[in-house]
Amino acid sequence: MGDPLSTTLSALADPTRRAILARLAQGDATVNELAEPFEISLPAVSRHLKVLEHAGLISRGREAQWRPCKLKGQNLKAVDDWLSVYRRFWEESFDKMATYIDELKHGEHDGRAKKNRR
Amino acid sequence: MDAQRKIADNELLIVRTFDAPPSVVFALWSRAAHLKRWMGPKNFTCPEATVDFRVGGTYRAMIKSTEYGENWFAGVYREIVPNKRLVFTFTWENEGPSAGVETQVTITFEERNGKTVQTFHQAPFRDVERRDSHVGGWSEAFDKEAAYAAKIAKEHAI
Fold this sequence. Notes:
The structure holds two protein chains of two kinds.
Chain A: H1 4-12, H2 15-24, H3 31-35, H4 42-54, E1 58-60, E2 69-71, H5 74-105, H6 110-113
Helix pairs in contact in A: 1-4, 1-5
Chain B: H1 3-8, E1 12-18, H2 22-30, H3 32-38, E2 45-51, E3 58-65, E4 69-81, E5 85-92, E6 103-112, E7 115-123, H4 128-136, H5 140-155
Antiparallel strand pairs in B: 1-7, 2-3, 3-4, 4-5, 5-6, 6-7
């Protein structure tokens, strides 16, 4: 799980963190503001923020009291690229699925299909 | 950059209409012998597939090409409504950028004039019910997620 994309995907693989990112897309916010919609403790929110920060999805201000969180978009681009690989995987699989359905409709049954297998 | 839209884009949605009734299209997902005939992109074959088709059951399969070699993936069936709906996890086992990242696939099958509209959805996120249970409090699912986040955090020595 060491490469940047895995880190980003792991960070995104949680609905609370995703909701936090969606909130930050509307503007910077403090930990308290981010915690408000969730019935979870501040330490739990802080833990989520650490994961997001490590994944490079957010940055945080340095002031001790007022540490506003800010969304950083660059790493989401890597996720886009990852998705495009999946898209190709499935689109092309479904092309083959359509071809296979055609074969099935033209009288090939499981037993006989094998001899025509390419 | 429209970040909110970008986040929504992290989910994959592919809608296809197949010229066969839902019972046929559903069977192409539920039986290993069928899966081997279509799974994988162009220039890939799927020589290995095992399927334990029940909720909680696992599947594991391998696609292969001369260029990319053997690629294994596996998952667990989460929901099965025959000829209507199928939910399973999907994880690549090989080394690579997305190895070990669990995604969830949700497919619905809808009959339309003897054809099947297949709606395929894949996301690296949990489903809505579990998301809602997270928001509601420290559910079992949330504990699991928190433990996972902690594990990730530990691995990276935050």
